[in-house]
Design goal:
Number of strands: 0
Order of helices and strands: H
Radius of gyration: 41 Å
Number of helices: 1
Distance between the termini: 140 Å
Oligomer: single chain
Length: about 100
């Protein structure tokens, strides 16, 4: 009787172990799928963030160029105005001599 009980229990434990193994495998597969989806979403968010940063950098560069252009125009205009004043003063000094 003891051997029969031992065989029965061994068989039941084997069946239970197989059922748990199947369920653990299913859980592992679900975690793997979730990890893959999570990784894909993180990669998509990272790509979107870098794209947005590139767009912002391009916008800033354009703004810097526009500012440089305006500064150069103002300096050129100021230089032309100063050159005209110097010319007028030279003419005045020349006429005084």
């Amino acid at each position: 009787m003891d051997q029969d009980l031992k065989d029965y229990l061994d068989q039941r434990f084997t069946e239970m172990d197989q059922r748990f193994t199947k369920r653990f495998d299913a859980v592992d597969q679900r975690f793997t799928e979730m990890d893959q989806r999570f990784t894909e979403r993180i990669d998509a968010a990272r790509a979107s963030m870098f794209q947005r940063m590139d767009e912002m950098a391009a916008t800033l560069e354009e703004g810097y160029r526009d500012t440089q252009t305006e500064v150069l125009k103002a300096i050129y205009s100021m230089g032309a105005h100063l050159e005209a004043r110097v010319g007028a003063q030279e003419a005045l000094v020349t006429s005084i001599q």
